[in-house]
């Protein structure tokens, strides 16, 4: 029966330095306990410790024996198959093994000869090395093409996979361009197989590149404070995808945002999203203790005060302050106003229908352009209303006002052009009727008066350098401007401006609706129902309702505890640099970050900074 060829070993010997090696007793009268010594690994690099047998082996000899490179006559079982454990004579026996014929034969046949002689294939055919080099060069060209397309966000594949047609994708076309002055790549692309250009290889290369980028990002962020941003949406295959992004500050104090990936989720409950957030943090080697911020949308599942995602994260890490994006908060405030004020909502809906008529038909767009050149050539064109863009509502309504007469004439022609398309003809007639009503004109003017201030604020809030305090000041300024419009004098000006447009636009003067008795089921038997005495009195509540709705919504959505905490931190630095009193801000900062910031040292540094700026200002004044 063949003798076993030693333990299972790897490519390198196992040499544990801090292992608790077992002891063996030696002697009868005087018992001595001896064990394997870790310093022997330095004296005999070929030593291999086997944990299962608790014995030492020669890694070189065991490897050579397994490959059949040692003759049976020279083999030493103690270091190959049986294992060595005579620690009393260890150094003498190990030195003897180093000089033995068995060990020298293993070293020569396993290490020395392959190193000196080299690969037999390369010796027999020198062309193999050249072929390897050329193959590597071609593979590098393929990798460069993949990196370029991925960096530019371009599609890889077309409808043809031949590599020689006009319908080839960008990937094959880029390789064709690179091969125009590279003969090696031309020969590579002329192969029938093994070109490494298949979709499977492309995806594998992209995956490796993505993992490398992620590792680089993770290495930079690890142990750094960071904030998380999460949002979810449904993709084209109706799978709910959760997007995870981290925001952090680099060593140059520049904010960085890195996309970590998509997570497919089967539900959009707060518990599911919290699990995704925690899983991503653990998966990338971050620590929730370093999380200093959260940013989500305004959905109840994200910002719910009891069981929302932000609340559950805050329960585990109170310093992970939740903030709702300034721009998104303002957009929701505008949506609240539009939803509550019917006349503005109807005006925006009609404007959206107008946008669709002009956007989705080149023929109607050309007709509108022709009429505009005849009626109002000096006015700007029609601005399409896009429901998903935050800063175009007011400009779209303004374009309706300055092109009102052009739109009226265009709709007459649109109806005639669509006389055989009954559905389109009905749509054009419906929009044409809306433009002839006072309600639509009033809603457009009111929406423009209110939303232009909001759109201006939205543009300002999207600056990269915006701070928490600056955003609050901008919002407060917009609220003040809106509140200034809430007066009888301002409404009178607005009303007269709307009525002054009627004759030119051929719109009839508004009239009071016919008085009707309320239904019996709603009549509580109390006071008589209210009826406005004038048309102005009927439209006056709509004006004030729009202003009250957007002011209240902005105040509510911008009054976020997280933003207030950031504002305290910012004002602490600003007031400290200016030499102003910052006790209130210091107290607010100490409550949340007192265990991380040496407040006494911070106080001293702020006073030094104030003195530095005062000295600098005095020097500039003297110059």
Descriptive tags:
single chain, 623 residues, alpha/beta, five-stranded mixed beta sheet, 57% helix, 9% strand, elongated
Derived from helix and strand composition plus strand pairing, the structural class reads alpha/beta
- In round numbers, the mean pLDDT is 86
Count of alpha and pi helical runs: 27
Distance between the termini: 101 Å
Helix content: 55-70%
Apparent shape:
elongated
Rg on CA atoms, Å: 39 Å
Strand content: 5-15%
Annotation, overall tally of beta strands: 9
Uncertain ranges:
none
Write the layout of secondary structure elements.
Blueprint: E1 23-26, E2 32-35, H1 40-43, E3 47-50, E4 55-58, H2 59-66, H3 77-80, H4 90-98, H5 101-117, H6 120-124, H7 127-152, H8 170-178, H9 183-189, H10 199-221, E5 226-234, E6 240-249, E7 255-264, H11 270-283, E8 291-296, H12 300-303, H13 309-316, E9 321-324, H14 326-340, H15 342-359, H16 362-375, H17 393-402, H18 404-417, H19 422-435, H20 438-461, H21 468-484, H22 488-500, H23 502-505, H24 535-558, H25 561-578, H26 583-593, H27 599-622
Parallel strand pairs: 5-8, 8-9
Antiparallel strand pairs: 1-2, 3-4, 5-6, 6-7
